[in-house]
Amino acid sequence: MTTDPLDHAKVLLDAGRAEEALAVTRPLAEAAEPSHRALAMHSTALKGLGRREEALAFDRRAVTRYPTSGVAWHNLAATLGDLGRGPEAVQAMEHGLKLGLDGALSWSVLARARTAAGDLEGAERAYQEALRRAPQQTEFAREYAEAVWMRHGDLNAAQAVLDRCAHAGGAPAPLLIAKAKLFEAAGDPGKAAQLLGAAAERLPGDPTVLIAAAQAALESGRVEEAERLALAAERVLPFSPAVLNQLAIVSLAAGKPEIALAKARKGLEMAPDSQSLWGWAATAARTLGDPLYAELYDYEAMVRPYDIDTPQGWPDLAAYLADLTTALNRIHRYSRHPTTQSLRHGSQTTYRLTGSDDPAIQAFFKAVETPIRAHMAHLGQGTDPLRARNTGDYRIEGAWSVRLNPGGFHKDHFHNEGWLSSAFYVETPDGALETEEKQGWIRFGQPPFQTVPALPAEHFVRPKPGRLVLFPSYMWHGTVPFTTDERRMTIAFDILPR
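User: That's the sequence. What structure does it adopt?
Assistant: Structure tokens below.
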């Protein structure tokens, strides 16, 4: 057994026990003369708990104390990139490279930093350098392929990135899943399902492939095949929340809501804060008439619109929103939607808006603080899965902008990484909003595929510029597609209790 406390902290971090690791590293990192490793591991523990701003302070202390350490500059760049502070991250990582760093991981950090800074061409070059040094690294290949797709819309070029990684010995499962997502994003879900079905035959012991294949089969209307694949995943990994989540999904599609609810409840025993499992449990409960649904889907109490006040420094809300629109348009640099998100026919920013130094974007996060706190106060305390986590304080976990083109929409979805989620309207398709179909409105309660019985949307909120809508992260929501020649731009973020 190791006697070095930092070795013990590393074991804890590898086991996902960041809170315990933090207790070990704190006194070592806060010492008068901390070691390089103590500072780095304390930062890692903080980031594991989502406390990135606190981690940044220790990374800055590391480069001050060890200015010739390329690793310290690498760590600083990575944290800055995680926070969406792209230009600073680029500067830090380029300094680390000048100090002698030349590994694939450092080049990937530079690629992400350049993306956050808006230098998409430079990001692609950095990804190429990373893959030149580690051609079998699937994470870098997936990120690069995604960047190629979103920037150029070139399906063949994006696939080629994944294929080169596979030929170099990259792990097949994540590469096959990434390729299937490319097909689906390009409008060919049938090809995605065919690819993943073949992958499931080749890799019958890989639950991630079986889950992905089950979902693809379901989205192609092959419910029996989806159920067979999900059950195969359960045989491999019977106590996995992810497998139980997939079983709940396919059971609902197969008209077996009792089984769906039982699987979701079993998963929640192991992952009690899983927004996905709560979302599917609620869907099954709705089908069954179970009282759990009313507890989770109280639209009047849980879904509320708030119109923000004009931020300080602008004469009125219209002037502020005009500046915010300009700021967001500058960072919407991609031409295609991501492969892993809900939007279609539009673009999405890929790094945290909370890290932006643009005055209009900075003002946005100050403007929404009052409605967020009002919403938490309105929810109050309780024993249900939403209110039980209400501490009265919060942190923003992710923040991004979506710009939908005519015909664009969000597939119905929920946010598994959040507690509360949001939609803030910067630009709205005003002509579409007046249509009988409620085109462009945000809708709630409708799952993303046909269930037995069908479960249509139950609640709609009309967007308008300057309006923030807050709702539980587990709640189904999507955009009614609009056909008018207008654009719709939003900011969205997830909130976690602090």
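The longest strand covers residues 394-410.
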